[in-house]
Amino acid sequence: MANMRQIAKQAGVGIATVSRYINNTGYVSEEVKAKIEKVIEEVHYRPNELARAIFKRNSKIIGLLVPNISNPYFNEMALIIEEYASNLGFSIFLCNTNDDPKKERAYINVLQGHRVAGIITVRSQCKEEYTSQDIPVVSFESHISEKVITVATDNYTGGKIAFEHLYESGCRKFVHVKGPDFSEAINARSLGFIESAREKNLSIDIIKFETDFQRKMLEANIKILEDIEKFDGIFVFNDIAAATVIRYFQQKNIQIPEQVQVIGFDNSYIGEFLYPSLTTIEQSVSEVGKTMVKVLIKMIKGEAIKQRNIMIQPKLIKRETTVGINV
Ligand code: XLF
């Protein structure tokens, strides 16, 4: 049975070049590739099981890049993706990018080096890095390119629902606690909220958080939350940030929902544990997670995906931080 050494000899190239070609770990010129492929055909070279997986990129490993694993929405998403993918025979290689494009780029390289079968990327800030390689990619929220399928909640509509609910609940002085600007989803939520207010000739004040969650979230934002009690309706861009805002009011002895009403976004599991429990806009993490795995596995199998942008509909989850009724 032929091995890499013999292939190298017959093709007249070094063994390192053959290895680079088979493992796709570096540059091999088109001319040399053609020579190696010809010898592989002639000698009926078949790599061993692991090498074959690498060679055909059927490693059955999915790379999952999340921006912030300490955000409950993303840790639940990772759990659902792992569970659903493993039932379909795939393992997960989990990477936390910390919303840092440099770290994301480095992880994309690592995943490519491990010849993963496909990648699910969440709130990505990279583009060419995904499209320059021939790996199937599904993206949550960020639109990367034509080749990459995007799955996202209809965030604009979610923002509108949040406004309508606060308005129906009697609020008239609104503030929006907005997350980082680089996120398409966060911006769309804000726009829906602001435009709905405009339709009623009302204006929205904005307070900005620089991250979606960090351990000392309240300490980091305490200054910018000063005076927030002058508003009566608050839309916070996600649930974990809403938990921070609720904590702030509790420390100041301000009653929710009697003095101020709060609505979050996600319907992550923490909402039910908060006191008072959090009214929020659901972006179904189970639907999002399963849809991404299903679509990615279809792509890995070479099936065509017609819908390039998959939109998940948001829904109001009425709990105790608002007084209005569920619509
Ligand atoms: O990127 C957005 C902001 O935070 C994401 O969908 C989330 O709502 C998760 O908490």
TrEMBL record:
What CDD domains does the record tag this protein with?
A: HTH_LacI (cd01392), PBP1_Qymf-like (cd06291)
Question: Sorted alphabetically, which PROSITE patterns does this protein's record hold?
Answer: HTH_LACI_2
Entry's transmembrane regions:
none
Q: Which InterPro entries match?
A: HTH_LacI, LacI/GalR-like_sensor, Lambda_DNA-bd_dom_sf, Peripla_BP_I
Q: Which UniProt keywords apply?
A: DNA-binding, Repressor, Transcription, Transcription regulation
Has UniProt tagged this entry with the keyword Transmembrane?
no
Stored Pfam families: LacI, Peripla_BP_3
Q: Which SMART domains match?
A: HTH_LACI (SM00354)
Name all HTH lacI-type domain ranges: 2-56
Q: Name one GO molecular function term.
A: DNA-binding transcription factor activity
- UniProt keyword annotation of Lipid metabolism present: no
Which branch of life, at top level? Bacteria
Question: What PANTHER family does this protein map onto?
Answer: LACI-RELATED TRANSCRIPTIONAL REPRESSOR, RIBOSE OPERON REPRESSOR
This protein's name:
LacI family transcriptional regulator
Q: What is the native source organism of this protein?
A: Bacillus canaveralius
- Phylogenetic lineage: Bacteria, Bacillati, Bacillota, Bacilli, Bacillales
